[in-house]
Design goal:
Helix content is 56%, strand content 10%. The chain is mainly alpha-helical. A two-stranded antiparallel sheet has the order 1-4.
Length: 214
């Protein structure tokens, strides 16, 4: 009996980072959670300061690295963040594992806050919003589906080009005073891109099938 190894590639390795398409569960859970928390924020007794992220108090309130992701500063802030999460989340989530989607969302969000703290270690102005996490989703999607066509101001462009444009915009925003945490956005999209590259590398590994020849 001779035993040979035949090198084949699974559907996953042909489509790096992908699995069978399913329904995007966590995208809608996060949207629902952010909307629900926003309504709680309207209550006079809601402890906003205890859940928002302020670098000066970050080590006294370490949970704010996560809880601040689900807070938003106003209805416009909430709307645009949830719109972006919906548009990009429904494309990315079904194409990667559930665990990987949750990981990139939270790691990008937490490290986005860490980047804000790095730039303003003694800052007392709270940072809130899911932007860093959403930029992570966008960055990962840009690597896994670079040719996906999206529209920005009614102008079609490939996802990878749009991600590069956002990265440059956020980097330049670091030098413009304002109330937007550009460093959190920049950190988020970098984290997402790194997750995307890692996913592609893992999925490109060969899959071997053993066959018996009698």
């Amino acid at each position: 009996m001779a035993v040979v190894v035949r090198r084949v590639y699974s559907p996953r390795s042909r489509r790096p980072g992908y699995r069978s398409l399913g329904r995007p569960k966590w995208t809608f859970i996060f949207i629902g959670l952010c909307v629900a928390v926003f309504f709680l924020e309207m209550l006079p007794q809601f402890p906003f300061e205890s859940f928002s992220f302020a670098p000066a108090f970050a080590f006294e309130q370490p949970w704010t690295f996560v809880t601040s992701i689900f807070l938003h500063a106003g209805i416009e802030h909430l709307f645009f963040n949830m719109f972006a999460l919906f548009m990009f989340g429904i494309y990315l989530e079904p194409r990667i594992s559930e665990r990987r989607f949750l990981t990139v969302f939270f790691v990008a969000g937490v490290l986005g806050n860490a980047a804000y703290m790095l730039m303003s270690p003694y800052g007392t102005i709270p940072a809130v919003g899911a932007s860093g996490a959403i930029y992570g989703v966008m960055g990962m999607l840009a690597i896994l589906q670079p040719s996906l066509t999206i529209y920005i101001f009614y102008m079609p462009m490939p996802m990878i080009f749009a991600a590069a444009l956002w990265t440059i915009t956020e980097f330049l925003g670091l030098f413009v005073p304002g109330d937007i945490a550009h460093e959190a956005h920049l950190a988020g999209i970098i984290v997402g891109a790194l997750f995307g590259l890692w996913t592609k590398k893992m999925k490109k590994k060969d899959v071997f099938i053993w066959e018996d020849w009698v």
